[in-house]
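Re: [help] complex structure
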Amino acid sequence: MSDVVLQSIVKRYDATTAVDNVSLTIRQGELVALLGPSGCGKTTTLRMVGGFIPVTEGRILVGGRDLTSLPPNKRNMGFGFQNYALFPHMSVGENVAFGLQMRKLPKADIAAKVKTALDRVKLSHLADRLPKQLSGGQQQRVALARALVIEPDVLLLDEPLSNLDAQLRNEMKLEIRSIQQQLGITTIFVTHDQDEALSVADRVVLMRAGRIEQMGAPDDLFERPASHFVAEFMGVTNLLAGTLESVGRFRLKSGEVVAVPVAGLSGDLALALRPERVILDGTDEALLANTLSAEVEFATYRGLVIDYRVRLPSGVTLIARRPSPAVGGPAPLSPGRAVRVSWQPEAGTLVPM
Amino acid sequence: MSGSAMSTATTSPGGATAPPLNLPAPGARDRRRLSPAFGLAAPGTLFVVLALMGPLALMFRYSLNRFVPGQMMVEAVTLANYQKFFADSYYQEVLATTLWVSGLSTLLCLLAGFPVAYFLVRQASDKWKGRLLLLVILPLLMGNAVRTAAWMVILGDKGLFNAFIGLVGVSPVKLMYTPTAVVIGLVSVLLPFMIVTLQSVIEGIDANLEAAASSLGASHLTTLWRVVLPLALPGILAGTMLCFILSMNAYATPVLIGGPSFQMMAPAVYQQVAKAMNWPFGAALAFVLMAVTLVLTTTANILVQRRYRRWSE
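Output below.
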């Protein structure tokens, strides 16, 4: 059993607080993504779990054992660095063997374990190469093998995919997830990319300014953002400020009144509306309770989709996303054209500002 | 070394720097522009050739001349001066002393300098790093002779050191005019060179590598031995060569702190040239010193490079 428990972790540097009272339990075998913009404290938190940065306040427990004051070499955790941090003067095999040598295993055992670890990441044939002779993706695999071969209680990954190109990133994402599930290893995965977090994690922890803003299953954060910040970070581009006028009626700051789902909120709110849910020149009026007239300001062609920025008479702008003709979407709209903008009330989510 | 720098400058192809809009016409390969680096390297190269190689050649010529007392130098081509060195055990002992004093001083500089350089890079905050580095370099702003004179004040029979240990009831020790004193003096002169050289190399080692070693179970000491030290090898080599060459040629320290009975090569050369007026033998001694230093440092370089080249470049 190696549940990882962070109890009210605080990290202060002189005047600034990098991590402010973070409490989190990661269950055995779970993959939790720490997500957030740069400077939100996610990497600091990870490094405190790894033992590289001392904790100012709070405790870190793994399987009930308090590790707070132990150095990294006594924690039995595998750490994957953003730049992989492979030893440049050692071959791939020597890099993977390093942790086993530290554990003083017999030579034959080391050789067997290194082979298994490299097989797992499909790199056995490169065991004699030096790190610099490998591609970025291969280096990432070696780093993963090196971290896993010591059979750590916890795997910590710091932005493991950020140095890879887009296609490789997708491949590695799946590979990390599949290895993690095969081994059933408790994993903390730091990333600034919401898409990465959503697709790889059992649970996503979104951090902001050293605190946890929201945590939950990927669909929780994506579909039920708890704040303006979460909605924005999760890629909701339309966030319209306003106040509730009556149950189900929301008055935008710019004056328009629109229908929204019933929510137990009050005060200054924002209506979060994904661009995919905004319909231009929709025909099925019955489904579209909110219909406003607007003008296309400009269009951004993005391959599979086209993003249109439309302006309401009050000056408020919205982004509407439509499939492009490449995937059978309607013909493009040119700027200046008058359109009707509509969405279903349930498509919007109210969030506190 | 300067020779190889020159040859690189003259042979480096200039075509690679041609701007893309100014493509050379087919067949114009022969009239490629000289690399701008050549123009930049030329004044320095010229100066080295004239100011260093010239006198060196002249001294080498002198070393082949014959010394006749009263007449000083007589034009000749003889190896007599070199034969004299290899026949006279006194000068071989001087060379041996120079070698072990230099070797020991360099080793002590490495042992004392590495921890300081490592601390500067990994522990000191950016604000303090600059100040501490300045502090390390500060002694170099003072003349070598002045610093050595200060050591005379400290190490003398009635100096500060003996006064200090006298306070705690220890009887005075003889330090001045001993090899120990010379080694102390040399280490104090050379340490800044070692620290600055090591610091710049350790600065280039990714701190994450040490974190990685630590997370894999390595203690501080093992990390230092298996990761930091191998990666700092080029810096260790550079610092060691620098300190060794400087101490092989040390003059003020052995003369002022070593005293008249302690002989090292550089003072011996001076002795021959300025006191005995024996220019040919002095020149021969200088060339023996240079050859020994060159052979040792080149060998060390080759040995280390062979290990290092595998993964560097």
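The interface with chain A takes residues 206, 208-209, 211-219, 222, 226-227, 230-231, 310-311 of chain B (CB under 8 Å).
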